[in-house]
Amino acid sequence: MIKKTKLADAVKLGLIASLSTSAFVASQTAVAAEGEAKVERIEVTGSRIQRQDMETASPVTVIDASAIRAEGFTSVDQLLQAQTSMAGAAIGSTSNNGSGGSAQVDLRGMGAERTLVLLNGRRMVSSGTGADSAVDLNSIPVAMIARVEILKDGASAVYGSDAIAGVVNIITKKDFDGLLLDVNGSGTDRGDGQTAEMSALYGVNTDSGNYTLGAAYSDRKSVIQSDRAWTEAGSSSYIPTGTLGGKVQDANGNWVKRTTGYDFTQDSYYQTPSERYSLFANMTQDLGNDLVLTGDILYTKRKSNQQMAAQPASVMLDVCGAPGADAVKCITLDSAMTAGGIEADKTGRVEYRRRTNDVGPRISSQDTDTYRASVDLAGSLDINTGMNWDVSYTYGKNKASSTVDNSINATKMEQSVYANQDAWFSGQPLTQDIMGDIGYFQQADGGNEQHTVAGVLNGELFDLSAGAVGFAIGAEYRRESGYYNPDPVVVAGDSTSAQQDPTDGNYNVISFYQEVSVPFTEKLTGEFALRFDDYSTFGKATTWKIGLTYEASDELMLRTVAATGFRAPNVSELFGGNTGSFDYLDDPWGNEQDPQIKVNYTSDPDLKPEESESYTAGLVYSPGFIDGMSVTLDYWRFKVTNAITRLDAQTGLNECFAGNATACETFKITLDGNLDDFTNPLTNVGTQDTSGIDFNLAYGFEALGLDWKISNDMTYLLNFEQDSEDYTGTVDGNFGAYAKIRNNFSIQAGQGDWSVTYFNRFIDSMDDIYTDYDANDEPFTAVRQSDSVLYHNISGTYHATDALTVSVGVKNFTDEKPSTVSNGSDGGTVPEVYDTIGRQIYGGVTYKF
């Protein structure tokens, strides 16, 4: 018999506590039934050793399908970004600028590329629009999820690269018998942002196995920024009538200073539209002789859009007769222009700006296909008390085509302005011929491919007085490749978007790893892992992990983990095509004509891996005087060195100007300040250092004739530093939010066939640091406070019959408005952090045949 203690039950309870207390009941595949003499061995995220319970040194949060349904999550990214352990600003459904329709996870705010995403314990292919560095969570439909396990410490010694911040392991529904139909929908109380989901799951048991098939469809509608009262109107200096030297013509034909701006929020999305189709299947087949064949297949098609205001275009025009100007290709300033103060600058040019509304808004579209198939053959060996082995092959592929409608060819625009000065400067709409000449349909394609072959042997080595020594030893081969082909106009550098070259590359890695679990005493257990990886790019890497658990009593367990980790440079970092970026910089030589200086962003095939150290220490406490309560408390810290990043371009300019030859060589600047080949390469110079405390309370009890369940999750951020900059307690549109306190609370009451749950989600106030200007128009650093936010959600579930279940709910019940952020990424806030959609009502019906 397996020894059962109050603490063991508490650990399980704490592991499966989540935002919804309905998640307290673990999947039968995760926790064996009480009272059985023989307990099934399982694999818990963070270890390859199959064990008889879920007690480990590593903190793991488990969120099951019922919890996902209770809060009305329609995508995996929404589910994950609601967790208190997330920070930063991972892209998702509210990311309108630059997301490419993808959705990612950002554990601890350390970057999506530093969180490893697994599907059924195996790597998921990177996906998006091409040569991507992270998994697109949109490729995994919510309908197929049985549970999500979040490992919140470094796990490179177990899983290899990318697991610096932790691991998200998505477990799909298996061993299903019957037919399940599920229909869900939601919408805002303003009549927009509707979502619809339909799924079907069919499973059949045979004498020797199970086959489960599923299909899912989802459709998400858009929300326009200007349709929300809290959105401040935009006031861009790029206006549809155009400006010359910052001046516009008034009704009398006089050139006067521009006093109006363009409201770009009427064209931009808060919620981006998306349509997804998914097919998935799982199978388990007993082949006899202790051989079991398992497999899973997933296919997802995503069609998504983003929309932004028409392209803001700027050209510098030579002024006829001005010193340094082109004598042939130039514009003539008439008397009205000169009277209005329009004149050439010291380079003989004047700037013309225009919002190209005549061509139309920028509409980005993506059509992506993601395929994933995995097959595993497992068996056992009659050695010692029995050992288990399995070999697997996993294949993943992602391909995408992406387009941008109403793009502008900057070269043709400049030529058109010279050729049609009256039409461009009149402030009137442009002709169809001009619009057809400067506008174009931008097209690109890309993809990723992954092959993984793995084998593992696990079991018990020998017995000690306190129990058996468990082990796992394995090997893995993985090949990654990716490509991206930009539009030819972009490659040629003629687009208003940044010039970019194609990307194409691949690498492979061979890995060996081992784990050992040693019960030193009945109370003290040690977990040890060691991994060796050999990459075709940078060479070898070795990582380790040490964990200890100590059962101080039946009520208290202490645990700690120390580990090293690494992140291998990805395809785009190694083989990415050179990309031009116009950065706001100060040229100390005074040679550059514009404040936006072109910088050539390059990749580097000789990049080394990022390295990390992580440490967690905590406790699990189940007080004997309060039945059904579990408390977990964990301190964590992560340090990353040799992080892959770009150098500080302004510092490079200044140091080269001061005579530092190394800086000049690194940035490809001549000693006299020629910036024609100004380059900023990726290199291993970045750092991260973050620490905090996680707290969880789970409590189930009976009172007033009802069953009650309470859950509280809190993360207190002690520190987050990146590249020597302190982001603790700050928010910004570029890097997102690092609130000191994030807290999720839920309370559920139910009886028999019904239950009602109240949730709230708290985000602490943060410093909003921005650039302001004094009375002399001189810039200075200013700080304001973004408001704290408390979101309230309510849901109810009713099991009308054994077959029929109905659920309803309201998100953001009090219609809290998002906090204003000075340097916000959209709508004067950060949509990836705050709810910009408003109150939403959702509901669903499930019927099982």
UniProtKB/TrEMBL annotation:
<keyword id="KW-0813">Transport</keyword>
<dbReference type="InterPro" id="IPR036942">
    <property type="entry name" value="Beta-barrel_TonB_sf"/>
</dbReference>
<feature type="domain" description="TonB-dependent receptor-like beta-barrel">
    <location>
        <begin position="358"/>
        <end position="812"/>
    </location>
</feature>
<keyword id="KW-0675">Receptor</keyword>
<keyword id="KW-0798">TonB box</keyword>
<dbReference type="InterPro" id="IPR039426">
    <property type="entry name" value="TonB-dep_rcpt-like"/>
</dbReference>
<comment type="similarity">
    <text>Belongs to the TonB-dependent receptor family.</text>
</comment>
<keyword id="KW-0998">Cell outer membrane</keyword>
<keyword id="KW-0732">Signal</keyword>
<dbReference type="Pfam" id="PF00593">
    <property type="entry name" value="TonB_dep_Rec_b-barrel"/>
</dbReference>
<feature type="signal peptide">
    <location>
        <begin position="1"/>
        <end position="32"/>
    </location>
</feature>
<keyword id="KW-0812">Transmembrane</keyword>
<feature type="domain" description="TonB-dependent receptor plug">
    <location>
        <begin position="54"/>
        <end position="167"/>
    </location>
</feature>
<protein>
    <submittedName>
        <fullName>TonB-dependent receptor</fullName>
    </submittedName>
</protein>
<dbReference type="InterPro" id="IPR000531">
    <property type="entry name" value="Beta-barrel_TonB"/>
</dbReference>
<keyword id="KW-1134">Transmembrane beta strand</keyword>
<dbReference type="InterPro" id="IPR037066">
    <property type="entry name" value="Plug_dom_sf"/>
</dbReference>
<keyword id="KW-0472">Membrane</keyword>
<dbReference type="GO" id="GO:0009279">
    <property type="term" value="C:cell outer membrane"/>
</dbReference>
<dbReference type="InterPro" id="IPR012910">
    <property type="entry name" value="Plug_dom"/>
</dbReference>
<dbReference type="Pfam" id="PF07715">
    <property type="entry name" value="Plug"/>
</dbReference>
